[in-house]
Write a structure and sequence with these properties.
The chain is of the alpha+beta class and 256 residues long. It is built from seven helices and nine strands; from the N terminus they run αβαββαββαββααβαβ. A hairpin with a 5-residue loop joins strand 4 and strand 5.
């Protein structure tokens, strides 16, 4: 996979990364491991992929709409599909130490007792706090709105994890044996939902969307007024989780 074309690393940044990594080693921070070569070719529609090397266009804004009325409380098909696609295998008993790119949460309205079940993942903010606090530029947002982590320059400081209001990021604590070659991961790095960028870049849907048995998840271009997701959002009430933060997230929910 290719390095992002729009990420220029000067000698000052490389020097900072080297110094930070050395300091981290002295503090017991895990050493850098092989990371993700970000693909800068995303932005294809669900039916059309673009040629390798073509940069992600700023005209596209990928997003997801989740209908909580269709999301069953006991169903975790999206979680399992995410784990399978991205090579996530729990290797420790304590779930807090394992990676989880998408999780199911249950909400209860204290006023009327109504409950909702919904998947929670990286919200792919237009103004991502994880990017703002990252000291190396490892947390980054592509031109098409997908928020990613460049594992080559992630130093494992976990500032992004603290900054994320959605608790959507995980830290890899242990060596990894089973991986998807298209989704390289490594000990000492932070990671989170990527909208299955390796699939989107090929013109496919994210694995969770494809696996949902009730069709509760809709993925598409928020900037295209003719797309299914844009039309749904235009005519039906949707919610941004923590809209008060004014992050303009890429994931919207119906029914909450």
């Amino acid at each position: 996979m290719n390095e992002p074309q729009d990420k220029v690393q000067d000698s000052g940044r490389r020097g900072f990364i080297g110094a930070a990594a050395a300091a981290g080693a002295g503090l017991g921070v895990a050493a850098l491991a092989p990371g993700l070569h970000l693909i800068e070719v995303a932005g294809a529609t669900s039916a059309t992929a673009r040629a390798a090397g073509e940069p992600a266009p700023s005209t596209v804004r990928w997003g997801m709409l989740i209908d909580t009325a269709k999301c069953a409380s006991g169903c975790d098909a999206c979680v399992q599909a995410c784990n399978t696609e991205n090579g996530i295998v729990e290797t420790v008993k304590d779930a807090r130490q394992g990676s989880q790119w998408i999780r199911k949460i249950d909400l209860k309205d204290p006023k009327n007792g109504r409950t909702h079940s919904l998947p929670m993942m990286c919200q792919h903010c237009e103004n991502p706090p994880c990017v703002d606090v990252c000291p190396t530029g490892a947390s980054m947002k592509r031109a098409d709105g997908i928020v990613l982590v460049d594992r080559h320059i992630c130093i494992g400081c976990r500032y992004c994890m603290m900054a994320c209001p959605y608790k959507a990021r995980s830290f890899v604590h242990q060596p990894l044996d089973t991986q998807n070659p298209e989704v390289p991961r490594g000990i000492g790095c932070v990671e989170s939902c990527t909208f299955c960028v390796q699939r989107v870049d090929k013109g496919m849907q994210p694995a969770c969307v494809e696996a949902c048995p009730e069709g509760a998840m809709l993925f598409g271009d928020l900037n295209d007024p003719n797309s299914g997701i844009a039309q749904r959002i235009a005519r039906e009430a949707t919610t941004q989780v923590r809209a008060d933060l004014k992050l303009n997230v890429g994931v919207r929910y119906q029914g909450i």
